[in-house]
Amino acid sequence: MPAALVVVAKAPVAGQSKTRLCPPLEPAQAATLAEAALADSLQAVAWTPGAARRVLVLDGAPGPWLPDGFAVVAQRGDGLRERLAHAVADVGEPLLMIGMDTPQVTRAQLAGALERLGDPAVDAVLGPTPDGGYWAIGLSAADPAVFDGVPMSTDRTGAAQRARLKKLGLRTAALETLRDVDTFDDALAVATLAPWTRFAATLELLGVTG
């Protein structure tokens, strides 16, 4: 059964988006960069073939950065773990879920992840980040319990998530590692790795180098 492609994101609002980039960025600049990262992520999803549907699970209101063809679901719950669990429950079908922090992700990478998840010998996929987290999780069955007990936004989140999937008996395949944008150093590194992105162009236009 094809999986849905899901983006979990926060609407880019000054003072609420990418606040760890301040300083050196000002809050409005951080929100502008966050919008670029979100737009890149959504465009990659929009261009990816093979998805059952495309869903944005959003904290906030949609803006002009949202491409056509997405269902929009409001985030609910307290804290990231609850919000992810509710997102899985609300989508209610096999899914590959990403955030908005990897603007360098490509449709080829997403299509490959969907193909991996479609393997009958695979129940879940997990894409690690160098800081110990993960940028993508895919499930062949929509089970919100996969997040139970997993600490979020720590350097052991990825390991804890893998352990939880294993405890549930899910056969998990690893996706490639992608760096996510948490700090300004991350932003510079990702822009250098992916100069074709709106994210990289926006960072250059902001003219802030650290």
Write the layout of secondary structure elements.
Elements: E1 4-10, H1 27-47, E2 54-59, E3 70-74, H2 79-91, E4 95-98, H3 107-117, E5 124-128, E6 134-139, H4 157-167, E7 172-174, H5 184-193, H6 198-206
Parallel strand pairs: 1-2, 1-4, 2-3, 5-7
Antiparallel strand pairs: 4-6, 5-6
- Which topology does CATH recognise? Spore Coat Polysaccharide Biosynthesis Protein SpsA, Chain A
Structural class of the helices, strands and pairings?
alpha/beta
Question: What gross morphology would you assign?
Answer: globular
CATH class annotation: Alpha Beta
Describe this structure in words.
By secondary structure, the protein is α/β, with parallel strands linked by helices. It has a single domain, classed as Spore Coat Polysaccharide Biosynthesis Protein SpsA, Chain A. Helices cover 36% and strands 17% of the residues. It is built from six helices and seven strands; from the N terminus they run βαββαβαββαβαα. A seven-stranded mixed beta sheet has the order 3-2-1-4-6-5-7, with helices on both faces. Strand 1, helix 1 and strand 2 form a beta-alpha-beta unit. Helix 1 runs antiparallel to helix 6 and helix 5 crosses helix 6. The mean pLDDT is 97.
Outline:
The chain is an alpha/beta fold and 210 residues long. It contains 6 helices and 7 strands; from the N terminus they run E-H-E-E-H-E-H-E-E-H-E-H-H.
